[in-house]
Amino acid sequence: MKRFKTTILLCAAILLSGIATHSALADDSLQGVLEETRQPGRARPSSSGSGHHHRGGHHHHHDDEDGFFAHVFADIFGPPILFTITSPWWGPAAAIGDEYEDEADFLTYPYEFDRPGLLVIESAPPSDFDSWSMRVSTEYSTNFSDLHRIGERIQLDTSSRFGFDAEFSEWFEETSLGTENLLTGDANLVFRFAQSENMEWHTGLGMNWLDSPDQGEVGFNFTYGVRYFPTQPVILETTIDWGRLGDTSLFHLHSSAGVNYRNFEVFTGYDYMRIGHQDFHGPLIGGRLWF
């Protein structure tokens, strides 16, 4: 009962935080997204004529000095900078002790057989466990004003650590001219770069897309996320998508807290998407099936 109360309080806190900030959505619109994504890309400045050509050899000494200091800077600061930049990938693996030695099999659903999560990581896992796991979810989010979203998502994981993650959202906005519709989504090839029996980290590359009656756009996508099983029956998940859509930028943050009973999970959370200068965010509620 204590775990159940803690879960309810956690889900309620996420939901209330979304309600408290929903008013910021009012200044942005689906039409604004279409206008930004259809803008032509800015031409890059031509390199010809942009610099000054210097004749003579009196600059060689300065060039040698610049090259020397650049080399010293790279030797001294290069490794720490590279170490910091790559830490989101090697850091989680090191923190949870993932040394890529054992393959992972999957339970049919989280906490099956009173295990601590979804993965079974053993040198010789029992044959009745699965080599793949799939989740299908649907959700609804709103800004409690004139914007609503219905979303679907499918996620596939395998023992090879490679998987697939795709989502689809249909947006509805009430305007003075009626209801406007917009479709957005992404599809990614993902890799589980850090794993333990109660935690999974994913990253991957793919594409974003947008579709409306008058316009269609595609673009590059990078995804990064974590799924955590702190205690039965709680499931926490956060995913970040970052890339391009047409000629503008896209950033998407999706975070949820749920509880499951066998193959079914109900969750609540918060969804934030920024396309160009248009912000859409609000609380969400949904359900998920585990296979």
What would you say this structure looks like, in words?
The protein has helices spanning 2-20, 30-37, 60-85, 87-96; strands at 104-106, 119-121, 132-142, 147-158, 162-175, 178-196, 199-212, 215-228, 234-245, 248-261, 264-275, 278-290. With 291 residues, it is α+β, with helices and mostly antiparallel strands. It has one domain: Lipocalin. The strands form 2 sheets. It has a 10-stranded antiparallel β-barrel with strand order 3-4-5-6-7-8-9-10-11-12. The chain has a two-stranded antiparallel ribbon with strand order 1-2. A hairpin with a 2-residue loop joins strand 6 and strand 7. Residues 4-9, 11-26 and 41-59 have low confidence and may be disordered.
What keyword list fits this structure?
291 residues; alpha+beta; Lipocalin; 4 helices; 22% helix; globular
Radius of gyration: 24 Å
Please report which band the strand proportion falls in: under 5%, 5-15%, 15-25%, 25-35%, 35-45% or over 45%: over 45%
| Structural class by helix and strand composition | alpha+beta
| Major sheet attributes | 10 strands, antiparallel, barrel
Could you say what the CATH topology is called? Lipocalin
Count of DSSP-assigned helices: 4
Terminal CA distance = 27 Å
Overall number of structural domains: 1
How much helix, percentage-wise, in residues?
A: 10-25%
- What is the name of the CATH architecture? Beta Barrel
Main CATH class: Mainly Beta
Overall residue-averaged pLDDT value:
82
Strand order of the largest sheet: 3-4-5-6-7-8-9-10-11-12
SSE layout and pairings?
Blueprint: H1 2-20, H2 30-37, H3 60-85, H4 87-96, E1 104-106, E2 119-121, E3 132-142, E4 147-158, E5 162-175, E6 178-196, E7 199-212, E8 215-228, E9 234-245, E10 248-261, E11 264-275, E12 278-290
Antiparallel strand pairs: 1-2, 3-4, 3-12, 4-5, 5-6, 6-7, 7-8, 8-9, 9-10, 10-11, 11-12
